[in-house]
Amino acid sequence: MKIHPVILNVVPEREFRWTGHLFIRGLFDGEHVFEIQLRGIDHGLFIQHEYFSGLLIPFIVTMLNTNTARGFADMNKALKARAEQPAVVVP
To answer: How far apart are the first and last CA of the chain?
Structure first.
């Protein structure tokens, strides 16, 4: 499945949001959001969510709930591991 995303919003260090459509709008649409909410000086909460809609949803819901969800979870684990690495100080 190839989707050409269009960036909807970028707020540095806070939010990145894009949307994409498969072939034509209304067939299979998705809006993906990455948010960072600050929870203190050196703590934050990363939130990733996606909204899907379109005529094809009933036919691909299983794929979205398995492969797509697994990909999001893997990305979140990798991001967490990287974010928790100690900062490298260059003299």
So the answer is: 46
Report, as ranges of residue numbers, the positions in the chain whose pLDDT lies below 70: 1
**Residues listed for the chain:** 91
What does the alpha-carbon distance between residue 44 and residue 36 come to, in Å, rounded to a whole number? Answer: 6
Helix, strand and coil content of the chain, in percent to the nearest 5, comes to: 30, 35, 35
Helix (H, G, I), strand (E, B) or coil at 80: helix
Find the DSSP H helices in 1-91: 57-63, 69-83
User: 79 Cβ partners below 8 Å, 6+ apart?
Assistant: 46
List the chain domain ranges: 6-83
